[in-house]
Amino acid sequence: MFNQPSPHEVKILTRCFGVENSHRIDASLAHQGYDGLKKAIEMGADAVINEVKASALRGRGGAGFPTGLKWSFIPRTSPKPKYIVCNADESEPGTCKDRLLIQNDPHSLIEGIAIAGFTMNSNKGYIYVRGEYRYLIAILETAIAEAYQHNFLGKNIQGTGWDFDLYVHSGAGAYECGEESALLNSLEGKRGTPRLKPPFPATHGLYQSPTLVNNVESFCAVTHIIRDGAAEFAKHGPEKSGGTRLMCISGHVQRPGVYEMPLSTTLPFLMNEVAGGLRPGRTLKAVQPGGSSSPILLPEECNVGLDFDSLAKAGTMAGSGGIVVLDDTADIVSYALRIISFYQHESCGWCIPCREGTTWLKKILERLDRGEGSMKDVDLVGELAKNMFGRTFCALGDAAAWPTGSIVKKFRGEFETKLAAHQAKQVSAELVMIG
Amino acid sequence: MSLQLSEATQARWQKILDSYPEGRKRSAVIPMLIFAQDEIGMITRELMEEIARRAEVEYLQVEEVVGFYSMLRKQPLGKYHVQVCTNISCMLVGGMDLWHHACQTLHLGNKQTSSDGLISIEEVECMGACCWAPAVEVNYDFHHHVTPARFDEIISELREKG
User: Fold this and answer.
1) Quick check: B34 and A191 CB within 8 A?
2) What is the tens place of the pLDDT at every residue in A348-407?
3) Angstroms from B140 CA to nearest CA on chain A
4) Would you tell me which residues 217-246 of chain A have a C-beta closer than 8 angstroms to some C-beta of chain B?
5) Secondary structure of chain A as H, E, C letters
6) What is the pLDDT of residues A104-122, one digit of tens each?
7) How close is the nearest chain B Cα to the Cα of A117, in Å?
8) The listed CATH number (3.40.50.11540, 3.30.565.10, 3.30.780.10, 3.30.465.10) that belongs to domain A25-234
């Protein structure tokens, strides 16, 4: 870990963090490593899927789709090869948890992928690691080699007659490849552009074959769910958002960090009790509760649970679990510009509303950030964002439009102040020239 | 000039090529590119041609990929490529100031390299160190909680290492 743990944490996925050599198989085996896989083999595929469903696990990559349901969509008896793909292309601003899971406990991830492989009757899996996380590739490759030596991967695994090979694949820098269909294109050696859906990856994924794509944290959670039972995991969250998640809180709090918290945790509790609250003398301005893609919350909207449904009800989303806190020192106009600059840079250019929309939003917000333009420009930002929303191949367009639209709506006053301040400065400069 | 790659990179290429099912060698293109770039510093025409041959794809299918991914580059950068994150989590705790500090103290702009070829800098998007911001990545090594003073130390250490 890179930050001190909190006494409020419920350590399930992170339970081996801090154990000496936790990334090696001996340490893993000493902590029930691969017991989940052995149990899954005893249970059989149908029971595994039911157990994942019963855990109320929802995808930890951002969309929050029920994992068990996703698993049930894979045509397990298809004559085509079935693939398991782990999305380790973590790149949502505000999110830095998958990196820790791989670094500290790669065997829980490998075990989760192997459980999925057994369940789907698959013989091949890939871990797509973002290019910037190069150091994790060595850790994963060592762990995979160890898993082969212990016959948790390879041929005739644990005497079942089932073979499963697992490989690590490096990306090369593209946020868009976190979107599952773009990731699959990238894994096929192509540009990372999204595919038109349907058909979905469950039936037409990697090489047009049935493919299960899950986030690192989702696979890790499966390992613990199968080993300890669904109820043991589900009890930590509300009915439809089971378990714990690694919450990444960053920005203006005293103890930013990654904390494994029950999904029943509320935002004020995480912010104040776990992350130490704001810096002395500061007041809260806003929170983005689910990475840079999520609509922003005003202080009065922050009394909310951090599970998927509570945040959806509050008009935002739990996303990838990146909670960004802004205090009164933050310039919200510059913040909005930084968000849109990111999406403009990362738009893959495949479809027009996103490619052009992000470019125009950036141009207008640059103008506003300089204090130039007029309030009509602020309206135009809102209008453009609205017209992008839901009109793109993938969620990147929505992810750009959603926070931007919410910022101009909720912080109109800050834009007005910035424009007025700049205009006043210009007027006084002109007066000096006349004088 | 013909392409010369170390045994380690050749072995890495073979491992990559062996990772994909029969007839799916195109999947190897991106990992092959990035591992080779790490050794030779940039993507050259010879490199793309060799990868096209080995992965059994058209040259253009390699070229189009190089144009897409931000870590792949056709120009050389410094021996130490210093990447400063200015995305939201870093920005809120001084990432933008850190980036300006980097530009000013090194007299370099985005993606420019020092005249001795040792150090290049780049303003990058989120690198996954949000909770330990501001973050800097030198080649593939992460540095967390980087202040301007710490940044200067990192640069001196790199210069000493040479």
Assistant:
1) no
2) 999 999 999 999 999 999 999 999 989 999 999 999 999 999 999 999 999 999 999 999
3) 6
4) none
5) CCCCCCCCCCCCCCCCCCCCCCCCHHHHHHCCCCHHHHHHHHHCHHHHHHHHHHCCCECCCCCCCEHHHHHHCCCCCCCCCCEEEEEECCCCCCCCCHHHHHHHCHHHHHHHHHHHHHHHCCCEEEEEECHHHHHHHHHHHHHHHHHHHCCCCECCHHHCCCCEEEEEEECCCCHHHHCHHHHHHHHCCCCCCCCCCCCCCCCCCHHHCCEEEEEHHHHHHHHHHHHHCHHHHHCCCCCCCCCEEEEEEEECCCCCEEEEEECCCEHHHHHHHHCCCCCCCCCEEEEEECECCCCCECHHHCCCECCHHHHHHCCCCCCCCEEEEEECCCCHHHHHHHHHHHHHHHCCCCCHHHHHHHHHHHHHHHHHHCCCCCHHHHHHHHHHHHHHCCCCCCHHHHHHHHHHHHHHHHCHHHHHHHHHHHHHHHHHHHHHHHC
6) 999 999 999 999 999 999 9
7) 16
8) 3.40.50.11540
